[in-house]
Amino acid sequence: MLKFLGKILVTAFAVIIAANIIKGVHINGSLTAVIVAVVLALLNNFIKPVLVVLTIPITIFTLGLFLIVINILMVKWAASLVDGFSVDGWWPALLFSIVVSIVTALIDALIGNNKENK
Question: Total domain count for the chain?
Answer without folding.
Answer: 1
